[in-house]
Amino acid sequence: MLKLLSVRLVAMAVGLVFAVAALWALVVGVIALATEEPVPHAPYEKPNDYDWSFSGPFGKWDQQQLQRGLKVYDEVCAACHSLKFVAFRDLEQLGYSEAQVKAYAAAKQVPGIDPNTGEATMRPGLPTDYFPSPYPNNVAAAAANNNAIPPDLSLMTKARGDGVNYVASLLTGYQEPSAELLAEYPEAAPGPGLYHNSYFPNLNLAMAPPLTSDGQVTYDDGTEATIEQMSTDVAAFLAWTAEPSMIKRKQTGWPVMIFLLFATILAYMSKKQIWAAVKPKK
Question: For 188, which DSSP code?
């Protein structure tokens, strides 16, 4: 009996110590948060609000824009960034035929296994393959990009706030910092290997401007390839890679809402019919 009592007393003491420690940490944290002076930070611009065809409840993909965006990614972005969650066969959703997808995939080199030696090799892509990474591993990616690993772009518009507007704005936001900005925030000056961008949260990033001049890409549909046009096109394409089923989800939502409205009205009328003969007590 005494042994059991002593064990309980020790457990209570240990629990009390932990409770006091947790309370002390909470108090110290609150005091530090209340007394800490905010560190001044150079302001960055909010993304521009572009007019996207897929915005809103009735939005739809602009297949021509998505095809243009694929071309910008293929000729500009693919040199550094991967699309590891997108398969070549998914491009049929952009209006390409099965033969076009096969030809596009075959023009790419993807990792494979030599059936004769069992060694790793490169082979022409198949529609079932996914977009290959431009680098064999992260070490090679960092070595080629000033120790900064280019992120995968498959879900980029979902990973950033106001993602599709952010991507389009970022691609057009490269500029030299103004003298007024540097006078107030000297830390805003880009360091070695960095580039100033007014839409990036800390204003300087390791990615060099990927779109540098109009006409950098030649569109098959004859659209003029200005920097802003290329930026919005590739941003729209990345919105598709992040959520290819977005339009189907919206289209499915309307029948569901209509059904729920009908079911609610039907349930209300049934309730009135069933309880019509029951009078409430006074």
Answer: G
Rounded CA gap, 122 and 108, in Å?
10
The residue ranking higher by pLDDT, 14 or 4, is 14
Mean pLDDT (the chain, rounded): 86
Res 39 pLDDT > 60: no
Take residue 87 and report the two structure tokens written for it: 């398969």
pLDDT of residue 139: 92
d(CA 22, CA 25): 5
Report the Cα 110 to chain-centroid distance in Å.
24
Q: Report the distance separating Cα 186 and Cα 45, nearest Å.
A: 18
Per-residue burial over 175-195, b if 16 or more Cβ lie within 10 Å, else e, is: eebeeebeeeeeebeeeeebb
CB atoms within 10 A of CB 91: 20
Q: Which residues contact 198 (CB under 8 A, 6 or more apart)?
A: 44, 45, 173, 175
Q: What are the respective helix, strand and coil percentages of the chain, to the nearest 5? A: 50, 5, 45
With a pLDDT cut of 70, the percent of the chain lying above it is: 88
How far is Cα 130 from Cα 84, in angstroms, rounded to an integer? 6
Statement: residue 38 has pLDDT above 60:
no
List of residues 6+ apart from 50 with CB closer than 8 A:
164, 165, 168, 232, 235
Could you report the per-residue pLDDT of 209-251, keeping only the tens digit for each?
999 999 999 999 999 999 999 999 999 999 999 999 988 888 7
Cα 56 to chain center, whole Å? 19
At residue 22, does pLDDT exceed 90?
no
Show the DSSP H helices in the chain as ranges: 2-35, 63-75, 98-106, 138-144, 156-159, 163-172, 179-184, 227-242, 246-274
